[in-house]
Each structure stands twice: as C-alpha cells, then as structure tokens.
Design a protein that fits this description.
5-stranded parallel beta sheet; globular; alpha/beta; Arc Repressor Mutant, subunit A; 4-stranded antiparallel beta sheet; 12 strands; Rossmann fold
Length: about 230
C-alpha cells in the first residue's frame, strides 16, 4: 500500500516539526510549509493524499489557501488546524474543508481525525453503495441501517438514506438545501422544505444517541454539512 503523503501548512516552526515527526512515525510522509504561499506551490508540484492547514498564517491564510487548493483538486481532503473557536469561523472552515481540530489538541486526536477522513474518502471512492464509516458508526445504504460494533442500532427510512448519502457525497462541501429538495422531493416548495427539516432532525437524533461526535451542521441560508 502506498504511503499517504500529507501537506502540512503550519507557520509555527516548532509545532510543524513535532507534527511532522509524529505523523512520519505513524507511517505518513509529510511535507511542511510555514506559510500559505509556499504550501500552495508544494501542492501544485506534488501528489498529496490529505492537507492539514493552519487557519492563521502569514502571507496567505488557511482559508484562502484551501480555496486555491480546491480549484486545483476539488476532492482532496482538508483538515483545518485552528485556534479560532467562533462559530462563524468554524462554519467557514467546514464549508471549505472536511474537518477541523481546535488548538491545543493531542496528537492522538489529530491522528484519529486524519484516519476518519481518509477512511470516509476511501469508502466513498471505492463504491458509493458500500458501507461507509461515520465516526464510530457504519452506514449501509443498501440495508438502510446504522450499525455499531457489528450490531444494527438504527433502521433508516428511504428518505433518511437518501439525505445521508447526499451529505456524505458532499463531504468536500455543503449540501445545498435547494439541490437536495429538487433531487429527492422534486421541488423546493415550503412544504417539502419543512419535510426535509424533519428528516434532518431525525438523523441528528440518531447520531446524538449512538455517536454524539457526528453532527449535521447548519450552514446559514445555504444548507448542511456532516462532520465527525
């Protein structure tokens, strides 16, 4: 199996060295850039499997870097490393990338987030109808179930399966309300919009019950984003 190469964009030199050493000890290959401009140049000249991007960097901030990366490769997984905890900053990060880790963080938590995102991408790329890992749960679209530790914990309705599959399909972006309504219900009428909100609430309730770390986040006036 090929070694996964990580682009690490982090302006803190010491943290960059610690992260590089730790991740390489875990079997990854890491290229470290200390600002967004250098990171983008590295990205364009190398083949990376995932990007770890600090939000607050000199020359070019992390959000700007991620948007530039997305123009080159819309599917590359991006995890933000951020000291920002304001809701609007987190939502902006989730609208661009796949996940975020708030500083200070443990190396083990970061590793788990990286593995989770890579697993999700791998499962989705292999076959959209194959079971997909979501946090500690396994979503099987064919059987319409959520399972945990090999045991079915929830039976999903067809609408819930359709919505969840679309949320996972849009893992590199936001599932827009209008798109989902037209795709699943046929039109974006007020009645159908309220119906979709009910199914989103049901999915949230099931994740809260079985894995509270899996969340369906509202992106104001746009749509939804799933994070785990």
């Amino acid at each position: 199996m090929d070694t996964c190469k990580i682009l690490l964009a982090e302006d803190d030199v010491n943290l960059g060295k610690v992260l590089t050493t730790y991740l390489e000890a875990k079997g990854f290959s890491v290229m470290h850039a200390n600002n967004g401009e250098v990171a983008y140049e590295m990205f364009c000249s190398n083949d990376f499997g995932i990007c770890l991007v600090d939000v607050m960097m000199p020359i070019q901030d992390g959000f700007t870097l991620a948007k530039s990366i997305r123009k080159v490769d819309s599917k590359i997984p991006i995890i933000f490393l951020t000291a920002k905890t304001m809701q609007e900053d987190i939502l902006e990060g989730l609208s661009i990338g796949d996940d975020y880790v708030t500083k200070p963080f443990s190396m083990e938590v970061l590793l788990a987030r990286i593995q989770s995102v890579l697993r999700r991408v791998s499962n989705s790329a292999e076959d959209p109808n194959q079971p997909i890992a979501i946090g500690t749960l396994l979503f099987d679209p064919n059987r319409q179930t959520l399972s945990k530790d090999g045991v079915d914990v929830e039976r999903l309705t067809t609408r819930e399966v359709e919505l969840l599959a679309m949320l996972l399909e849009k893992k590199n972006g936001i599932l827009e309300r209008g798109y989902a309504l037209k795709k699943i219900w046929g039109d974006d009428s007020f009645y159908n919009a309220r119906s979709m909100d009910v199914y989103i609430a049901k999915l949230r309730g099931k994740f809260k019950k079985h894995d509270p770390n899996v969340k369906i986040v509202n992106v104001h006036s746009i749509g939804f984003k799933i994070v785990s």
